[in-house]
Write a structure and sequence with these properties.
Shape: globular
Largest sheet: 7 strands, mixed
Order of helices and strands: EEEEEEEEEEE
Structural class: mainly beta
Number of helices: 0
Helix content: under 10%
Distance between the termini: 37 Å
Length: about 120
Amino acid sequence: VQLQASGGGLVQAGGSLRLSCATSGLTFSNYAMGWFRMAPGKERESAAGISYNGGFTYYADSVKGRFTISRDVAKNTVYLQMNSLKPEDTAVYFCAADHWGAGTGSTVYDYWGQGTQVTVSS
């Protein structure tokens, strides 16, 4: 199983980025997907999640209304559209997969990808 995150970069506050996580080696439609982030000196936190069938989405309060998680079954890929970015969104972002999961904030994920750096300048 491989999860390949991409799309990070440097952006000014108020800008947007779209992260992608391409998966392989699993039946994508059977897996909940999540995006996590880890800022320097802080613990990893769940940013967003989507259930295996796409019927449920979860967002941390800190990103609600600004971030949107979506999935494309045909491309075996999950996305995180990030708008109105703030300097406090600066972190390494990771994607993760959970078999038959709901994608909630408390979901325990089975597989993890490498991170992609997002840096938001003020």
